[in-house]
Amino acid sequence: MHHPQPHISSSASGYPVPSAAAAFDFKPAKRRGSYNCSRCGLPKKGHVCQIDSGTTLTSTFTPASSPAAITIENSYSASRPPQPPPLRQSSNLRRALSFDDVDIRCDSPERDLDGYDSPHPGACLDPDDEIVSGGLPAGCLWEVLRRLPPAGLLAAAGVCKGWRETTKRLWRAAEELRLMVPPRGQLRFMGSILKKCPSLVRLSLKMESDVDATMLACIAFSCPNLESVELSTSSTAVNRITGDELGRFVADKRCLTSLKMEGCSNLGGFVLSSSSLSTLWLSDLYSLSKTVFNCPNLKEISLEFSRQENDTTDLTTMVDGMGRSCPKLQNIHIASLRLSHTVVLSLTASNLRGLRMLSLVLGSDITDASVAAIASSYSRLELLDLSGSSISDSGIGMICNVFPNTLSRLLLALCPNITSSGIQFATAQLPHLELMDCGMTICDPDSQNSPCDQSGENEVPNALNNKLHLMYQKLIIKHSRLKKLSLWGCSGLDALCLSCPELNDLNLNSCNNLHPERLLLQCPRLQNVHVVGCQELLIGAIKGQVSDSIASLENQFQCKRLADGCKRVRAPDCSSPQTSGDKKRRRVMERQCNVLVD
C-alpha cells in the first residue's frame, strides 16, 4: 500500500528526518524551576555534567556545507529565543553556587548577583530566584548570615563554597564592625579581618592586650574610608599610644569624624588637627604638658583625667585654647580633680554660643560663684552636670532662675552642701526636667563612723540618737515630666513621697534609713526600682506599693458604671473583637515593675 511521503529536498536525502524534527522540538532550558541538568537530564544536586558545554544540537547533526542544515538552523533561530552562551568553567566562581542553566543577565553589569557593586547586596536578591545555597534562597541566606557576630561569620565560611562566597560578600558590604581582639597575634588577626572589609566606616575594638601605634597604622592602612574609631582596653591591657602618634593618625584620616579612646595615660601631650573631626572622647588622661585642638568642626568633647593628686595638667590653659579653636562646641564633659572656679571663668570667656550640654565633674572648688558665671554666659543649656562640686541650695536657685524653659537634665551627685529643700525647689521650678541625679547629697555624716559599727559597743547613746534623728530629712517631689530620679546613697533620707506619673526609673540604692511607713510612690509607669543595700522591710513595702499601683490601673479598665449610675460592676469577659479599651488594658497588663536587689 502506497503512503504519501513528505517532500524533502534532494540535497538533504542523506540525513534522517527525525533529526530535523528533534531539532524543531528542542526547547531551551528553563530559567528557574528546573531541577534536572539541561544537557544530560540528571538531577542537579551534587551533579557535575561531563558533556561538553560548547556542543550544540545543530553543530552535531549539521555539516557546514548542508543547505538543509542551514534551513533548520535559521528556522530554529527565528522561532526560538536565542540560547544563552555556554557556562565558563572557572575554578574561582564569583557566584554563590555553580548552575547549569545560567541566564545571560548574570554576567551583565546591570545586575550584579554577587552584590559587589551594590551598597546593599542583599536587597537585589529575589528569594524566589533559582539561586539557592545549601537549600536556601540566596536572599534568605543573606538575611540569616548578616545577623551573625564576626566569629560566627568566620565559622559559617567553612560550611560550603556557597556559604563562603556569601560571607565574602557580607564582609565586603560591612560598614560597621565591633571586635574583641585576642591577646595573641592581634596584628595578624586584625590584618586578616580588616582586609575583608574595604567599605568599613565604623570600627569598635576591645583590646585584651597592650596596644601601641602599630595597631593605629594597621587600621589606617586597611580602612581608607574610616569615619569612626572606638578603642577600649581591658583591665589588664595598657594603651602605649603617645600624643604624637595619635596626632599623626588624626591628621592622616581626612574622613575621620569620631574618635573615642580609653587608657590615654601615656599621651603626655598632643596636637590634634582635623577639619572633619566632630566627636572626641579621651579617658584616663594624666599630666598633659601640651594640648592643642585645631578642630574647627568639633561639636562634642569628653576629657576624663585620672584621679591622682599629682596630676600637673594646666586645665585653665587647655580650656582657653579649646574654646578659641573649637567655636562650634555643643557638648563639653571634663572630669578632673583640678577643676576650679578659674577653669570655669576661662570656659565662660570663650563665649561658645552653641553650647547645650556642660558637664564639669569632680571639681570640689566649683562653688556658687561658678554657677553664677555659667548662668550669665550660657542661658540655653539643656544638660548641666556639676557632680562632685561644692554648690549649695543658693546655686540651685540660680540654676532655676536662668534655665526654667530649657534644662531637662540636672545632675548634682556628690554635692554635700545640697539639702532636700534645694532638690524640691529644683523640681518645682524646672517644668521640663526629665532626669535628676542627687546621689550622695542627703547623707548622714556620722553613718560611717557610727558607734554601732565599732567593736565592743552595741548600744547608741540616746543623745546621739536624737541628734541623728534631727539630721534626717524628708523629700516630697511632684512633677509631671520627670522620668528618671536617682537618690542613691542618700542615707540621711527617712521619708519620701513621689507623685510623678511619667517616672519609669527610680534609684534608691543604699537608702538604708528610709522608713517603709514613710514611703509613698504614686508612679503608675514605674518600670525599675533599684534597692541594693536597703532594708528588707523597705523592699517589701516598695513591692507592695508598685503592685497596688498596677492593680489599680488594671481595675480601672476592667470596671464600668451602669447606665443608671448607681454603682460600678466588673465587666464580664467576652469573645468579641478587641476594642481600644481592650488594647489599653493589655498594655497595662504587660507593664511590670522590676525591683532590683542585686
From TrEMBL:
Alphabetized Pfam families for the sequence: F-box
Domain F-box: 136-170
Name of the protein this chain belongs to: F-box domain-containing protein
